[in-house]
Amino acid sequence: SAEITKNYKAGDRFLHVQLEDGTLSYPVDPAALPPLRNPDILVGENDLTALSYLHEPAVLHNLKIRFVESKLIYTYSGIILVAINPYKELPIYGDAIIHAYSGQNMGDMDPHIFAVAEEAYKQMARNNKNQSIIVSGESGAGKTVSARYTMRYFATVSKSSNNAHVEDKVLASNPITEAVGNAKTTRNDNSSRFGKYTEISFDQSYQIIGANMRTYLLEKSRVVFQSENERNYHIFYQLCASAMQPEYEHLKLVPQHCSTLINCTVSGDFQMDVFKMLAAILHLGNVEIAAVGDERSSISAEDKHLSIFCELLDLNCDKVAWWLCHRKIVTTSETVTKPMTRAQAANARDALAKKIYSHLFDFIVDRINQALQFPGKQHTFIGVLDIYGFETFDVNSFEQFCINYANEKLQQQFNLHVFKLEQEEYMKEDIPWTLIDFYDNQPVIDLIEAKMGILELLDEECLLPHGKDENWLQKLYNNFVNKNTLFEKPRMSNTSFIIQHFADKVEYKCEGFLEKNRDTVHEVLIEILKESKFHLCANFFQDSPVSVSPFSSTINIKSARPVLKSSNKQLRMTVGSKFRNSLSLLMATLNATTPHYVRCIKPNDEKLPFEFDSKRVVQQLRACGVLETIRISAQSYPSRWTYIEFFSRYSILMTQQELSINDKKQICKIVLQRLIQDHNQYQFGRTKIFFRAGQVAYLEKLRSDRLRQACILIQKRVRGWLQRRSFLSTRRAAITLQQYFRGQRTVRYSACSGEAHRSPILCFHLALNLTHLIKVFLHLPCSFSLLFNRVLESHFQSQKEIYEKEIEGLNFKVEHLSQDINHLQKLFREENDINDGIRLEVSRLTSENLVSSRCRSTTQMCLWHSECCGNVFEISRLKQTGPYLKPRGVVVNMIPGLPAHILFMCVRYADYLNDADMLKSFMNVTIDGIKQVVKEHSEDFEMLSFWLSNTYYFLNCLKQYSGEEEFMKYNTPRQNKNCLKHFDLSEYRQILSDLAIRIYHQFIIVMENNIQHMIVPGMLEYESLQGISGLKPTGFRKRSSSIDDTDTYTMTSVLQQLSYFYSTMCQNGLDSELLKQAVKQLFFLIGAVTLNSLFLRKDMCSCRKGMQIRCNISYLEEWLKDKNLQSSNAKETLEPLSQAAWLLQVKKITDDDAKEICEHCTSLSTVQIVKILNSYTPIDDFEKRVTPSFVRKVQAMLNNREEVPQLMLDTKHLFQVTFPFTPSPHALELIQVPSSFKLGFLTRV
């Protein structure tokens, strides 16, 4: 890119531009000027449709900036997710990331495969409509991995409630299908050689209940032939690597250096049957066929591989050897056996191997489908299509033809869907719909599949006994050359033809088309295999197979459908016809669902991490329809802003008169009509403003100019103020100096006047000398400074004397007030002593009355028991009531843990009676009761808080009165008299401790659930500092936060929720140490959730957002201070977030900056620091991006750190809870039971 240094005028022949390495006069054609670049503020956007200028260079530049500099592999392009293969493991797929995207709107987070999966899941649940995720791209672009991640997302967020673990089975099927259907190619080490459509079924609760898989066009030729530097299917190498294991010795294979076999989740017998079939295919491929003359061939009777093949499949070896070298020709009058040449016999052998493998592949897929079957009926499903993208090689054959045909159909569906969405958007916004010209590839589809098209002519040639590739090609030439613009004959070849696909021209070589389309095996060999005593092999080739997939090798339909006996015509159906039918079924399925698109891009052919080959990328962008989407968008109104977004971004361009209008929508209309005179450049919708290409860039320029003018004005005013302040300071100094000298002159003049009769000339001389002295001082800065200092010193001395006198007066008043305060405090203490004496006397008299009325109480202690003292059933009433002792109203002056004290005194009564059965029964029922009430109120925060507090106090009472020295030392002598005498309850203390931990964990979960949805809106999205943030363009995927929602949570919402938690815990008497631990856990959650969201939201990584976060953290710190919780260590849990906010604000340019970042960000990992630096996004032109070289510099400095390379914080982490022993200061004798407890059946002993 370059910057234009001189305005271009119509008719100029050169553009004057500034490149990075100098200036240049660029010759231009006035009819085709080079495309304009987007403003820096728009470069690197999450959505390509947010760009003001939409064209290939802009799209490519944006992707390169994101991929190479920001290390972001996902980008939206309207409804498409563009996924660039990084060729490197990235820490962005963990469960923490899944939970971060779960429930989020698509535009709220950075682009991600999980965002697409969440959108599909959400639309399915909201609209009750089936969804499809279409993943396509070149081999090696990452299709299989992307499809795997979507299925993993569904398995994680929609786990089934039963114990079937269907989601685990769905995920476990992937390695099996990859083993039998994937292979190493020159482009990809794990290339899928088949298409796959997986339907994941959900019930009415939107939990996974099952799945079903369909497969398309397995590359069977790979079984018998692999190109240079390519390999066969993985399963063969895995089988050979395990050859020496005892259970596989009977397969008689040669060991290979490869990973061992995968652990299939199927029965051992089934696995061994599959391995026997695979080993048989390997041995069949090694069978040597010898030529006997020119017309015959034979197989040696000593051929060990043929013997092993027949042994494994239980076949007649002689018959197999004979019919591999001969074929049977059936005519109307006779049957003739004809020998085959060596080449024909080799083809027959290979065809048999391919046929067996094809049936085996279908059989394995069918068994997977059976394992994933479910009873009943599915409510909805989400389909994941992992299918080959558009392909063009040096030599293209039948497989590439079918693949590109499938992509033509998918592209047509995609174009129509994009067109439909555009139309719906215009209609929804009440904007006049104008027909948009888009590429319709129906003509090329007709060329392939229509009547007398390429496929029909191919099938016709296959029916002929002596059909040849050359004859078929000649028919194509005759029918289409010079008659169809999409079909061409190469100039230098008579064995190829060219088709103009939507992505590119592709030349196909006709050799092998007929053979691959027929896919025939001699019927005699099929009959031999039918007679096999190995049941799996025999079933493969039966007319009505038993327990074998009813589907063809190219498509797998739901196994719930009945198996019908195929007619002879269907048995003879060609591969092309089967593929066309299966493709039609697939398109019907996709058209009945809501599609979501993922386009995988291969950035370079060398598989280098984060290397971007622009030429290769743009080829794929054209091939996968991304640029077509851009082109369709650019034709109309590509930039779309909500009125709130426009107002927030461009309020700086509005006048005071315009801002005085209450209706923001009306303000936006008035401002836009003033700023852009051509009203055809925008349209006002119901909720959005639609802009033509380039208009947002123009508005950004106006905004930037206004900000620049404002900066200049502010600088001018500040500089003027500084100069004026300096001038006034100098002026005051000069006036002070003048006053001093005038005073001195007056004094001396007076002295001179007194002696004027003696020396008038001397006085005048002194005055002249004084004037001269002032002039000298003014021209000698040092002398002036010394003199000025003396003047100030004299002035300050006089002021000091005045202040000292004032201080003496104030000290006298303070001393007088202190005497008054001491007198008042003395009177207050005397009054308190009198009140304490009265209370003690009342307590003494009450005790004496109780003692006299209850003579049997010889120990003079306060005990609670039932009206029938020895009846355990009465105590059981308290056991049953105890867990529900939470009072309905507020009890004035109720001591903390009163229910716990009541429960303990019942324990004390059982100990007093020395009744072990009563004590055991009481403790068991009490613990069970607490468990029950906690279970029934597992989401009631107040109830959990109440019983956490009382369980803790009950545990402390059992310790305090246990009689153990370590606890007794904190008691008063009276409390020690109340210790248990007969029983050791240490085991029950352990049970209660475990119960308290369980209640605490549930208590924390409830608090987290209540506050979690407020954290991101309040901490990250809400502008605590009003006016310093500005929304940016968001493209097709709009942020939900951009909508003016009155229910949006703010920082105040977070603080109010925290205050509610705090007040509830205090009201329920929760111990201060437990309260601090709970607050610490909450603050950790707030910091972790906010930081995790920051990592996944590039639009939030800006200097201004760092200021907002720092401000919000200060509110939390102030809350801690206000509640006197500074010692809880809650502030320390916010340190990672605080450092992230600092990192967003600090300068990031020089080596010193890098060093400071490394020294300061000690609570952030290297991965987290690099992520923030890479994601840093300027909101205005005045902010600068972080250069890749600076990021590498920081990364190099952090290499010495020993840490786990983890991006996300674990929001589920729980700090270890401790229950400190805090003895109760309350004497049991003085405890009163409030009437609100309704425990009237208790009496005092």
Instruction: Estimate the strand proportion.
Output: 5-15%
* Helix coverage percent: 40-55%
Count of DSSP helices? 42
Q: Uncertain runs with pLDDT below 50, 5 residues or more?
A: 257-265, 545-571, 757-785, 846-882, 887-892, 1039-1046
Structural class: alpha+beta
Alpha-carbon Rg, integer? 43 Å
- How would you state the average pLDDT, rounded? 81
> Outline, from the CA principal axes?
flat
Order of strands in the sheet with most strands: 4-5-19-6-15-9-10
Number of strand segments:
24
Q: Biggest sheet, open or closed, and with what strands and sense?
A: 7 strands, mixed
Instruction: Note the gap between the termini.
Output: 94 Å
Task: Please tag this protein with its features.
1245 residues, seven-stranded mixed β-sheet, 53% helix, actin filament binding, Kinesin_motor_dom_sf, P-loop_NTPase, microfilament motor activity
Account of the protein in words:
The chain has 1245 residues and is α+β, with helices and mostly antiparallel strands. It has 42 helices and 24 strands. Strand 21 and strand 22 (688-691) form a beta hairpin. The protein is flat and about 150 Å long. Mean pLDDT is 81; it is low at 257-265, 545-571, 757-785, 846-882, 887-892 and 1039-1046.
